[in-house]
Amino acid sequence: MLTSTPIPLRAEAPVDQMQVTLMRAELAATIDRLTRVDGAHETAIPRLLLARASQMQHPVHAMHEPAFCVLAQGSKRVLLGNEVYIYDGSRYLVASQNLPVSGQVIDASPESPYLGLRLAFDAKDIAALALEFGQGDASSGSAPERGIFTGELSTTLLDPVLRLVKLLDTPEDVPALAPLISREILYRLMRSPDGRRLAQMAGVDSHSQRIAQAIGLLSQRFREPLRIDDLADAIHMSVSSLHQHFKAVTSMSPLQFQKQLRLQESRRLMIGEHLDAATAGHRVGYESQSQFNREYSRFFGLPPARDVKRLREMQLGR
């Protein structure tokens, strides 16, 4: 009979800063060579994205999928609700849930560009690894924690990250080795002091999984009027429990979450499909144009028309 061994949490050990610096320099040189122009670059490794920026950026609002983010050079600020998370060459960032965030590159120049990577995780990968090592059941009944966190980069974690990126130089090895190295990275993260936040996703019928279901339903139906009772029934939670655990994971209420999804989508519609503010607001579920304009201005800092004009001018480099 097979038995599982719980993943031991990694003890806080002194970080070899000299070795970390050397490995980061090698990672930066590799990403710099593979990304000659600014932007996000898909790679031959599934779910691995490389990023480059040669100047500071305005905040970008988007849905952050479950992923592990590392910067070899530069720094970035991520906002979740009113909370600020900053990571750089010494700290990584992990999102364990789909969350609406605002991200901004805050340290970059042509001489020293922002260079980083994002490795997305499938919830099934997290569940499979946690259950294999007996960490899923232990987290099933625990209260969910914030679905985003930062941690200190170590040589133990940088080693597989560097090997994964360098694997792009030998694409014939990617199908066989990339899944193994990606799994090793996830394993290292789950052994970290905050690894329990990932393990919570593996608990069968856990609070974290139910909140993930609620996030999924809101993401699919954000245009519809929000009925909290129906949402709570759909994920088999009481209304009070839904509010409590949803805010623990996302830092906001379901209504605030829905509002951010609506506003982000309206902005995409105006920029990408050239819709006017009235049409975009109605398309995402707003019945009142004045309410849409008010909430849009509060969230993005400018009224819809002025914000879209500014963004288009930025795209044209004006």
From TrEMBL:
Classification via SMART domains: HTH_ARAC
The HTH araC/xylS-type domain, residue ranges: 212-310
Keyword Cytoplasm: no
Entries under InterPro entries matching the protein: Homeodomain-like_sf (IPR009057), HTH_AraC (IPR018060), Tscrpt_reg_HTH_AraC_N (IPR009594)
Pfam families registered for this protein in UniProt: AraC_N, HTH_18
Gene3D superfamilies assigned to the protein according to its UniProt record, in alphabetical order: Homeodomain-like
Keywords: Transcription, Transcription regulation
Domain of life: Bacteria
Entry protein name: AraC-like DNA-binding protein
